[in-house]
Here is the input.
Amino acid sequence: MNYKEALEYLNSFINYEKIGYKDRRPFKLERMFRLAEVFDNPQDTFSSVHISGTKGKGSIASFTASILTEADFNVGLYTSPHLISPRERIRLNNEAINEDDFAFYTSKIKRELKNQNLGFSPTFFEIYTILAFNYFKAKKIDYGVVEVGLGGRLDATNIVCPTVSVISPISYDHTEILGEKLEKITREKSGIIKEGRVVVSAPQKRSVLEVIRGKCTALNAKLTLIGKDINFNEIYHDDEKEIFDIRGALKNYKQCTSYLLGRHQVLNATCSVAIAENLIKKGAKISGKNIKIGIEKTRNPGRCEVTAKNPYVILDGAQNRASAATLKETIRRNFKYKRLILILGISKEKDIKGVCEELSGLADTIILTKAKIERGEEPRLIKKFIKREKIILTKSVKEALDKASTLVGAKDIILVAGSFFVVGEAKTVIYEVDLVCH
Here is the structure.
């Protein structure tokens, strides 16, 4: 297959990211173990860092992969979703898998599955996960940094047995699958903790931390807690960077610089330092310089990403109340501006009410839109959750950006938020057509 044919093959599998998670039936880990068995369990050929949680998973993964790459390890990074190209999900030493390798390893999967009777039809995410692990095996990586897709316990990625398991801040998301109570959500997400292994957790609500501690005790896993065993001190921030110190368990890291914006990104960077220090304790050769440069080199598109200035154009895939509240705090903390135009589009099963309540008060003008996916909620239905009269409804992300460009001034912000699908479409439009300030 060529690259286009490989994409068509992958897209022939049911993709719950696009149609929505209607029930728990596809979440059976034995399916993924069976699929991995067909390919001689590629997940067992490399050491891994496995990252679950609600907020910040992708950023922690990116910081960690960057640090390990800077330390001259051969590093695979598997994240989701992608913004523009599916190749973004699978990276080797911070470079996306190229089209030829993508097609080659997809062809191998198609060829092998023709000769197998799995007894079930894999999902897009299951196939994509085995594609990533096969690619990592072939490239003989030292470490695989793996972000959970959804939940943890039953997620397709949970066939790895990680050196370090990581729990990012947990809040409400995918409640239709993971449960309505935070403790139940935590039990699902802490399902990545393995017997006798190391666990790094971001600061959590008390009820969440109790569940994580209980799981660690039951499995004799050693817990490193951010804010207790390792901490940070903010020094400076603006619209380009964060500068901070980290007090680690092994040493202190002075004047770290991150170009991912927001206090939460300082926290995410600190999580990655805790991961690196635990790997050092296991014998990995990672210097303080590797850690600081790795943090500085980290990029993670779609997370308070500034694509233009004068006026600002900022993209952020905030899609639950907690993420929206964090975005609101970062905008007010890091940027000086006159007016804010919010372009908002949200998927149907997300906390539309929560996102709207957090972000609507930030905006002087609100433009509602919809991504080109089945999961995208209709703007007229999102409007019901916003208590103001003047709201602009659009049929596409491009139309929303075109409208915003006629309203924005040089000292204003256009903020695109609510869904990674909306953010991905916005990036495509922005990089094809420059916004014009009228």
